[in-house]
Amino acid sequence: MAELRNWQATSLLELRFISDAQISPNGEQIAFVETWIEETTNKSGTRKPDYRSAIMLIQADGGIPQRMTFSVSGRDSSPRWSPDGSKLAFISTRDAGVAQLFVLDLARGGEAQQLTSLGYGVAEINWRPDSQALAFISRGAKAKAQTHVESLRDEKIIERLPFKFDGVGYLQPEYAQIWLVELGQEPNQITDQAFDHADPAWSPDGSELAFITVSRAELEHTRQADMYLLNVAAGTSRCLTNALGPVYHPTWSPDGSQIAYIGHDQHTGNASNEALWCVSRAGGDARLLSVGFEYGLENSVISDARIGRFPYRPYWRDNGIYCLATRAARTRAYRYSDGAMHELTPEDNPSISGYSQSLNKRTAFTAGTATQLEALYMGDADGSIHLLYDPNAALLTSIQTIEPERFTYNSFDGLEIEGWVIKPVGFSQGQQYPSLLYIHGGPHSAYGHNFMHEFQVLAAAGYGVIYTNPRGGTGYGQRFRALVRQDFGGDDYRDLMAAADLAETWDWIDSKRMGVLGGSYGGYMTNWIISHTERFAAANTQRCISNLMSFFGTSDIGPYFGEDEFGGKPWADIDKFMERSPIRYVNSINTPLLILHSDEDHRCPVEQAEQLYTALKVLDKPVRFVRFPREGHELSRSGEPLHRIARIEYILDWFGHYLQGHELKPADHFRRSVAGEWQSRQ
């Protein structure tokens, strides 16, 4: 048997990612997206690795997937079956690089027909029930490129909140509207209100569209939204809800009399679990269906090995409403019926990332485990589940992947915390190893039974990787999720220190060679930890928060997140905001710190990293700051491939120096090593 090789940062280049599994209405075929990395040429003529994707088709009873789209550039995504099963609509960035709508006629075959050429592209496509038209979202036909005269004046006039969004950039003055395209005709805009429209869903008779919007100026900076009903023929709309909180994924009952949706009433603010609600088509108060259900209707288990969309819209069938929810570090399938939520997946089922359901209740879903990337599964109406397609199966047989070991511990107040540890590759009893405490973001998310490429790379480099779900995370009930609200750096800090205390009792952990790292909320906690203790020998903060005051006004979510999670408006209580800002305690930071941040991060703006770096540099503390151009908050999960690889190699270099005694490498070493690795694979 050939010797297994180790995971490397550059192993990312070998992975294939599947997403957006869409089962045909009759349950016989599944369309999905497969994404890979290949060398492409960008607009400036530079050739480098980038993501490509195609629409694939597989029989629901098994077989080899068939590639359905063959664009020479860009990415194909969002496959959607026509209700009669004869056509497949999808979105592609081929040619111009702007997402446009295409349709494949499966009966006739041949090339896909392009239905739109809109300057701002299209999103959120949805077939009309008669299979003869599609609704979609677009900001309009105007080309993004400005004329020469317009370019002489390039200032931005901002009169709304939010005015930017991570992964999007500064919002255009044009609002997102609902458009309609009849097959064989030109697309038409069918709404024209001065607010953003989202999530259009056709009524069963095709006469109305439910959609989501924030239509009141005073709610622009909050997550409170409403569901509206658009009469397509008349062009009029009416509000069905009363802005209780966020609203997602309207889903019609089979008879068209009710609309279910996912949302919450902000009973614990931003820390509220997403729940299942319902409102009558005729109007009236929305009703909470999932009364007493303690878990959020969302997929909140983290993975850095997913690319693409993973829909979790509910499906309303004659025997109930099907949906996903995250419980105990695993996302599972549920059915609401007879006034209760019923779990459908076995306890040890892979953690589901996204799904779709046919009319005969067959379900296609993507799911993964801690040692398996996302794969495609088929679930029959009788409850049986079988694996259809795993694009990384062969690769995983050649690489040594370490199974995480689960543990639990009681924090300072007796609260049980769940965690895992991945032992270093080549682990030998009687030896001691350096370790890394990795803190998840959110804070309302979770680690769990999903594959983490980076964790395997760290284990292959000789580290024990420890990761836990401290209070504030999802999957452990509403009370657990809300415990961190307005207490960042409080009891959550004590949960994490209790994990470190426990790890130090393991005989294979070298307590003098422990590191700490995390991103987003995990970056905030890393900053907080090293400003309040010197027990860690080195640290790495990623896409972090250092100053709650400036975060409020510079983050795309600052106003609603800051007011709710931090407890008010900063100008009303400056001391409160600064008391929980790590920058206030920068004098106490002596732990060597690597700061990684993206220039286009609008969630945790780069100024947060700049403040921290500048203060530490002025204080002559050991610090390195690495900035990634063209990247946003999602660098570690969907950034440019070479940036993702470089990011991990900077982390390995930093901890390799401070925990393993290696020499720090200059920046140009990483550029050469990544480029050389790519060339060697061609």
Keywords:
682 residues; alpha+beta; Rossmann fold; eight-stranded mixed beta sheet; four-stranded antiparallel beta sheet; 13 helices; 38 strands; 33% strand; globular; serine protease; Peptidase_S9_cat; Peptidase S9 prolyl oligopeptidase active site domain protein; hydrolase; 6-blade_b-propeller_TolB-like
Structural commentary:
This protein has 682 residues and is an alpha+beta fold. It has a domain at 402-681: Alpha/Beta hydrolase fold, catalytic domain (Rossmann fold, 3-Layer(aba) Sandwich), CATH 3.40.50. 17% of the residues lie in helices and 33% in strands. The strands form 9 sheets. It has an 8-stranded mixed sheet, sandwiched between helices. Strands 1-2-3-4 form a 4-stranded antiparallel sheet, with no helix packed on it. Strands 5-6-7-8 form a 4-stranded antiparallel sheet, with no helix packed on it. A hairpin with a 5-residue loop joins strand 27 and strand 28 (363-369). The longest helix has 20 residues, at 641-660. Mean pLDDT is 94; it is low at 145-149.
Order of strands side by side in the largest beta sheet?
31-32-34-33-35-36-37-38
CATH architecture assignment name of the domain at 402-681: 3-Layer(aba) Sandwich
Distance N to C terminus: 26 Å
Q: How would you sum up the major sheet?
A: 8 strands, mixed
The third-level CATH topology of the domain at 402-681 is Rossmann fold
Average pLDDT confidence is: 94
CATH homologous superfamily caption of the domain at 402-681: Alpha/Beta hydrolase fold, catalytic domain
List unreliable stretches of 5+ residues: 145-149
Cα shape? globular
Residues in helix, %:
10-25%
Could you tell me the radius of gyration in angstroms? 25 Å
Structural class: alpha+beta
Which oligomeric state applies? single chain
Number of helices: 13
CATH class of the domain at 402-681: Alpha Beta
Q: How much of the sequence is in beta strands? A: 25-35%
Count of extended strands: 38
GO molecular function, one term: serine-type endopeptidase activity
Family: Belongs to the peptidase S9C family.
Organism: Herpetosiphon aurantiacus (strain ATCC 23779 / DSM 785 / 114-95)
Protein name: Peptidase S9 prolyl oligopeptidase active site domain protein
